[in-house]
Amino acid sequence: TKIDLAGLCAGRRKVQEQEPYKETDLDDILRRIEADDPTIVAPDKLHSRGLRPRWLARLGYAMSGGKNTHLRELNLSLNALAVEVEIDFKHFEVFARRAASHRYLQTLNLSYNALGLEAAKAVAQLCARSHCLRRLDMHGNKLGPAGTAELCKGVCVSSSLEELDLSENDLGDEGAGKAAVMLVMNRSLISLKLDGNWIGVAGLSQLGSSLAKNFSLCHLSVADNDVAHVLRHGVADVRGLRHLLSMESAQSLTTLDLSNTHIGSEGAKAVAERLVVHPTLTELHLSGCGIEKESDVSQRLVNMMRANPRIIRLHLYRNPLNWGALDLDDDTGKRVLMFEGF
Q1: Rg (CA), the chain
Q2: What stretches of 188-323 adopt beta strand conformation (E)?
Q3: Pairing, β 163-165 against β 135-137
Q4: Which residue, 268, 289, 314, 327, shows the most beta carbons closer than 10 Å to its own?
Q5: pTM for this structure?
Q6: pLDDT higher for 328 or 283?
Q7: What interhelical angle do 201-211 and 172-185 show, nearest 10?
């Protein structure tokens, strides 16, 4: 699985460069939120500031009461919000409960806070109770299968959530299974990101099964996962891919990101076979998938694009392919993206 070390380092540098908030600084923002200041729509100074759970509780109280009508977005990423002791959890629970009652908050970013299991339960309640939250970012929070299961309980019954990012949470196949169950029950989710979660063949198969019963999800990303595990004899296990792209699973999915999944030529061949007649997919990402230069898979993918005009974008960046040997007409060539920046 690929880890964005540059991004993590950049985030850490950002935390180091910005001084932690003083209570007086936070007091000013809280007063403006309580006073329903129309300029406080998306406070841009609450991320990477070393905020603590007790400050979250104060923020929750400032948001509640029905007075604030302008707040739309909260970015609380890269703070020290890890819930490790009981009192910390109570503060976080207060924030989640108060945020759920806010009638206008649409976007909440809690990424890279190492929240863990107990906080996941509070966020689940937020999702279940809120009628306006549309986007939730839980990227990089060490939820694991147990935390994911708790969070998905809330997402299952959410009627407003449209975008959910669970990338880099150590889900594994077990956690992917919990997300699959959530997809069967949820009716509002449009976009789901599960990048970098150690998801394998079994997890991908479960997601494929859930898509057959889901009629809302349009965008699914499983990039940076080992979804086509290489067997002992050197051939990729593509059962999960076939399941995910089967006609039975084709209900609403329009965009699928398989970047950096190392599916290789065997996996790409399975993709080409399935997508010739796929009725919903319009964009596919296969960048950095290790498709071999010597194979005929690249031409198979091009032929698939020619046969299925619904697919308007095929991303094939960072694959060692012999593009000069491809039989590409002008229309198909415009739809196959081979070089980044074009």
Answers
A1: 22
A2: 191-193, 219-221, 255-257, 283-285, 313-315
A3: parallel
A4: 268
A5: 0.90
A6: 283
A7: 0
